[in-house]
From TrEMBL:
Coiled coil: none
Catalytic activity field: adenosine(1518)/adenosine(1519) in 16S rRNA + 4 S-adenosyl-L-methionine = N(6)-dimethyladenosine(1518)/N(6)-dimethyladenosine(1519) in 16S rRNA + 4 S-adenosyl-L-homocysteine + 4 H(+)
Organism encoding this protein: Buchnera aphidicola
Enzyme Commission (EC) number: 2.1.1.182
Function: Specifically dimethylates two adjacent adenosines (A1518 and A1519) in the loop of a conserved hairpin near the 3'-end of 16S rRNA in the 30S particle. May play a critical role in biogenesis of 30S subunits.
Designated name of the protein: Ribosomal RNA small subunit methyltransferase A
Domain Ribosomal RNA adenine methylase transferase N-terminal: 25-197
Record: residues binding S-adenosyl-L-methionine: N18, L20, G45, E66, D90, N112
HAMAP family in UniProt: 16SrRNA_methyltr_A (MF_00607)
SMART domains assigned: rADc
Keywords: Cytoplasm, Methyltransferase, RNA-binding, rRNA processing, S-adenosyl-L-methionine, Transferase
GO MF annotation list: 16S rRNA (adenine(1518)-N(6)/adenine(1519)-N(6))-dimethyltransferase activity; RNA binding
Any one of the GO CC terms: cytosol
């Protein structure tokens, strides 16, 4: 991408505007997403169209959600603009489910996400999981590592548990700071999240899983007997076959689901 375009738009830090400038990475991303004509594709944050333009070459229509109106004005001057269905909105409040009803088909979401909102955005998107085919995101390396982390890993936490509860997650490629302009301080990883067809996990109420993981990870080094003492007695933990001396970071997703379901059933009896 030429530097000329950056004279027309000064990148805004508050919107996490680090634009992709490495064409090889762009081509690779498009290949990994592998869009097909007729599918419902949705881009979060098209920015200066690094991904939007090559995507439009392969599609008849593309939904884009961009919070920065000035970027949309630049997009309007592009030849492929007629293929876009544009929403000038904060993706964190966007009703993704409405896009399912456009063609009655699952939606495919992608984007080089603004790093400052990527975690909240992913958690928000899980609320629309039933209409999503896959999510393909460029993320800060540390966030991607948290998504895929397993028990015992230093990155394992709430985000790993909730994300793996909903999705199978694959790392597709790495990017270095110089692949973006302005150059960020962090490295990046492009990931694919695919909602489970048949989930290995089940909870009656995701909010309870959220509560239990939240409490457990408030201090990840504390043992469960202490961190969860308001919710479970030591006897209950033993009955559930969960060692009360385990630390939050060593408890499996299955065990967190067990804890959440125990609480759910207990509340039902009240
Ligand atoms: C990292 S840039 C990526 C831009 C472009 N896709 C690229 O790869 O060069 C993030 C983009 O998301 C937009 N953005 C930031 N916060 C947003 C939000 N809450 N909702 C929608 N778009 C947002 C920014 O304005 C910017 O265009």
């Amino acid at each position: 991408m030429s530097i000329k375009i950056f004279k027309k738009h000064f990148p805004l830090k508050k919107y996490g505007q680090n634009f992709l400038i490495n064409k090889n990475i762009v081509d690779n991303i498009i290949k990994k997403i592998h869009p097909e004509i007729g599918q419902t594709l949705v881009e979060i944050g098209p920015g200066l169209a690094a991904l939007t333009e090559p995507m439009c070459q392969l599609l008849d229509q593309l939904f884009v959600i961009e919070v920065d109106y000035n970027l949309l004005l630049l997009l309007k001057q592009k030849s492929f603009y007629s293929k876009l269905v544009v929403f000038c909105q904060d993706a964190l409040t966007f009703n993704f489910t409405q896009l399912f009803y456009k063609k009655n088909q699952l939606i495919r979401i992608f984007g080089n996400l603004p790093y400052n909102i990527s975690t909240s955005l992913i958690l928000f998107l899980f609320k629309h999981i039933q209409v999503i085919q896959d999510m393909n995101f460029m993320l800060q390396k540390e966030v991607a590592e948290r998504l895929i982390a397993l028990p015992g890993n230093k990155s394992y936490g709430r985000l790993s548990i909730i994300s793996q509860y909903y999705c199978d997650i694959k790392i597709l490629l790495n990017a270095i700071p110089e692949d973006f302009y302005p150059i960020p301080k962090v490295h990046s990883i492009f990931v694919k999240l695919i909602p489970h067809n048949i989930s290995p996990y089940f909870v009656y109420d995701i909010n309870i899983l959220s509560l239990v993981t939240n409490k457990s990870f408030q201090n990840r080094r504390k043992i469960l007997r202490h961190s969860l003492k308001d919710l479970f007695s030591e006897t209950i933990l033993v009955q559930l076959d969960i060692n009360p001396k385990l630390r939050a970071e060593n408890v499996s997703i299955l065990q967190y689901c067990q804890l959440a379901n125990y609480l759910y059933k207990k509340n039902l009896k009240k």
